[in-house]
């Protein structure tokens, strides 16, 4: 068992409480502590919303892929998201592709995947956190979290907790441009009984870089993975 664990997915928001309410409605969860969605019974990620006044200017390098049990369920999820303040968007998806592409009220992209998708089968409502990234960064995160690689071919990688739940995947090239700080990030925490500095040193040894204090939450250290993606450690 590695000495750090994934505590939450952090999402920057102009109004954290409002965006938390949107995602609670889409995912069927409750909001706690003002702007946090606790992990679901299907082992879905805890989601934390952090206040940020920085505007969204480019497509995010991370997004959620939500699952569906039928075409009717897929459409119902998309309709519910729109009713709650989301919208349909075009990111270059082809007409024959079965997923529905949407954005939340802050413009963060996400997909509702068609039923019968083998890659997200059994992963829960959030099937995948899909990321831009190299194969090397997938290997970094496998080593960092102690999650095995469940996909590693054609420059694409994916990891999944040994306990199951959503996957985290990296799609290989081409990569979206980076402009400003990442709006979606991973929050890590040192496991109980583990020394935080020892774990930070281990992450640096794996290829991470220390960036400084995390401006979104006091007490967290902001770091970057080998691809330059931000994450924090408490």
TrEMBL record:
Cross-referenced PROSITE patterns: VOC
Signal peptide: none
CDD domains: VOC
SUPFAM superfamilies per record: Glyoxalase/Bleomycin resistance protein/Dihydroxybiphenyl dioxygenase
Domain VOC: 3-115
Region of interest (Disordered), residue spans: 158-177, 214-234
PANTHER family, per database record: CONSERVED PROTEIN, HYPOTHETICAL FUSION PROTEIN
Protein name: VOC domain-containing protein
Source organism per UniProt: Actinoplanes palleronii
Organismal lineage: Bacteria, Bacillati, Actinomycetota, Actinomycetes, Micromonosporales
């Amino acid at each position: 068992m590695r000495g750090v664990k994934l505590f939450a997915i952090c999402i920057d928001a102009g109004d954290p409480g409002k965006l938390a309410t949107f995602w609670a409605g889409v995912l069927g969860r409750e909001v706690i502590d003002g702007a946090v969605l606790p992990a679901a019974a299907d082992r879905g990620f805890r989601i934390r919303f952090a206040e940020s006044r920085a505007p969204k200017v480019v497509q995010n390098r991370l997004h959620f892929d939500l699952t569906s049990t039928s075409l009717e369920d897929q459409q119902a999820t998309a309709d519910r998201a729109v009713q709650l303040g989301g919208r349909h968007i075009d990111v270059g998806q082809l007409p024959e592709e079965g997923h529905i592409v949407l954005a939340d009220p802050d413009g963060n992209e996400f997909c509702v995947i068609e039923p019968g998708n083998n890659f997200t089968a059994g992963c829960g409502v959030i099937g995948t956190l899909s990321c831009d990234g190299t194969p090397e960064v997938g290997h970094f995160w496998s080593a960092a979290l102690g999650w095995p690689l469940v996909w590693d071919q054609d420059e694409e990688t994916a990891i999944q907790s040994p306990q199951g739940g959503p996957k985290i995947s990296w799609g290989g090239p081409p990569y979206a441009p980076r402009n400003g700080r990442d709006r979606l990030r991973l929050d890590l925490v040192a496991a109980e009984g583990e020394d935080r500095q020892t774990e930070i040193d281990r992450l640096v040894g794996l290829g991470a870089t220390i960036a400084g204090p995390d401006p979104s939450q006091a007490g967290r250290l902001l770091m970057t993975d080998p691809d330059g993606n931000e994450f924090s450690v408490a």
